[in-house]
Amino acid sequence: MAEGARRPRVLLVAGEASGDLHGGFLLEALRRRLPRLKAVGVGGEQLRAAGLTPLADIRSLSAVGLIEIIGSLGRHHRVMELLKHQMDHHRPDAVVLIDYPGFNLLVARQAHRRGIPVFFYIAPQVWAWGRGRARRMARFIDRLAVIFPFEEPLFNAYGRSFARYVGHPLVDELQVTVGREETLRRHGFRVDQRLLLLLPGSRRAEIRLLLPALLGAAAIFRSEGWQVGLLQAPTVDQAFLEQVAGQAPLPVTCIQGDTYNLLAAADAGLITSGTATLQAALLGCPHVIVYRFSWLTHLLARLITRHRVLGLPNVILGRGVFPELLQQAVSVPNLVGALRGLLAEPAAVSAAVEDLRSRMGPPGASERAADELVDLLS
Hints:
The protein has helices at 17-33, 45-49, 73-89, 101-113, 126-129, 132-140, 151-155, 170-173, 180-186, 204-223, 238-245, 259-265, 275-282, 295-304, 312-317, 332-343, 346-359, 365-377, and strands at 9-14, 38-43, 53-57, 94-98, 118-121, 143-146, 163-165, 195-199, 227-231, 253-255, 268-272, 287-291, 324-326. With 378 residues, it is of the alpha/beta class. It has a seven-stranded parallel β-sheet, with helices on both faces.
């Protein structure tokens, strides 16, 4: 489509904090190519700052797990109706979907039925959960921008070359802007004490299941002279954290923002499985990966998943460098023991970090993804 003919329009959906972050960089790159672009949809602070006109906030879609998402079906339905209305009454030139496959693949099907081109950025982990989804996606996704090189042939094995490897956006996004001492002082920490960071997640369900154990482990490290900070996701307010912990104020320093500088400055972390674990690993922060599902979600996951490791850095490395504690294994003694064991092997952690960085691909993922989307729009 020639931009001069009329103003190009995309309908964009990100369903969680990491998608909002990656989507913000993608939209910025896209607007450099198409300055008159109109983008509407679902996102958070990063996408709004990049120029998205919001139809709904990202918190409307904040849910995870095969069972947990049931409790938010009403909110998901309302957002889906908004998106279908946009497709029917303000037809976009493309629907742009960022990660969050449980919901976004349903949006993709709705767009495909209406003959609207679908661009999907950051593919579902079909290599972990089964490849049948890759075969189905080939039927209704027009262009898929994947972030790992092995994903391109996997998705293109079903009669259509619709997947393009663009690299991992974290390579560009992980910007450490100040040194350790300045970061620690900025947030009220001492420079002569070790810092432990807690990242309990961005979804209320996972925080309820994980935060008490994380705070219990943190109390033990504090008694040994550590200082502790909690990185608070923008989708969660402090009142909710205090409610879950049963303490007001919380016994640790809560911080919003400055995530990369803090992870680079920290000596260790206890981190909920997700993008944050990969961020921490790339920034050299030794950490334990934690997660709890509902019992039924966990049972189904054990039946379906092909991987023995869950955390992104371990999946990419192909081995369990960073300890993973799941379900009932997320206990205070296990957290403390796993982190102490990891900290006792600094050379192995450093070698793994260098290996991980070498596997992440070259800079420029957002720019290459934007080029793919412009090509789809043309």
